[in-house]
Design the sequence.
């Protein structure tokens, strides 16, 4: 509950971050949280020293709130992703069935409508698509096309009930596809998490700047302000920039 309160308190500042300034986490979020907690605890003890060189003292408790905010945002994203994973699993189970249905109807209409110019053109267009979204649209298009020329399908003894099955399948799969791959709540939760991470990193950058000066002759104390994870990455790949404060 405290984490949610931190998030809601900082939400106006998180939303104020420009879209181009939002950063995707460049380290595991749980690791970022742990290291920010260490920095926040050290900064709380050193508030007087840090503020003596110009750091706004209010930034110290704000970092602690930013940590809680990120924890909450990450938990919400994880929950949303869990729902998406369940939908993706169901999609994986249903997709082969839908593809089989598409194949059966497409084979039937290709043969039955081979002498119907308009239908031939429609079938050619249907064959052009690929991917899940196209497959869903194909089922709907095939259903409508089949119902437009019932006599030809009856002539080859095609089961017309499959056309209804195709439209029903298109409807159910359309909803499932949106849940599995383009669910708005997941995108919204991810953006919120990235904003929380960005703001926390910005605060950490400000505090680190002050700490590096204050403790320039006290490496042991300064170590509390450094990221062990980032230090390992920096040694291997070069420095990782800290996001600038949002305007």
Sequence:
């Amino acid at each position: 509950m405290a984490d949610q309160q931190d998030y809601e308190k900082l939400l106006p500042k998180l939303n104020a971050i420009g879209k181009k300034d939002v950063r995707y986490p460049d380290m595991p979020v749980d690791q970022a949280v742990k290291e920010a907690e260490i920095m926040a605890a050290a900064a709380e003890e050193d508030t007087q020293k840090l503020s003596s060189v110009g750091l706004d003292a209010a930034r110290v408790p704000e970092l602690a709130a930013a940590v809680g905010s990120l924890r909450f945002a990450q938990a919400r994203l994880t929950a949303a992703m869990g729902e998406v994973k369940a939908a993706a699993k169901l999609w994986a189970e249903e997709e082969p069935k839908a593809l089989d249905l598409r194949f059966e109807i497409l084979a039937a209409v290709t043969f039955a409508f081979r002498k119907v110019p308009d239908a031939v053109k429609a079938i050619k267009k249907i064959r052009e698509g690929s991917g899940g979204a196209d497959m869903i649209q194909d089922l709907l298009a095939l259903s409508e096309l089949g119902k437009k020329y019932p006599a030809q399908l009856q002539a080859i003894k095609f089961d017309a009930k499959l056309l209804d099955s195709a439209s029903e399948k298109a409807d159910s799969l359309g909803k499932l596809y949106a849940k599995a791959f383009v669910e708005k709540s997941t995108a919204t939760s991810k953006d919120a998490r990235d904003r929380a991470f960005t703001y926390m990193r910005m605060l950490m950058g400000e505090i680190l700047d002050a700490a590096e000066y204050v403790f320039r002759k006290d490496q042991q104390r300064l170590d509390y302000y450094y990221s062990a994870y980032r230090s390992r990455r920096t040694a291997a790949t070069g420095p990782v920039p800290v996001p600038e404060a949002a305007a």
Q: What stands out?
A: The chain has two domains: 2-83+185-237, 85-184. The mean pLDDT is 87. The CA atoms of residues 104 and 162 lie 9 Å apart.
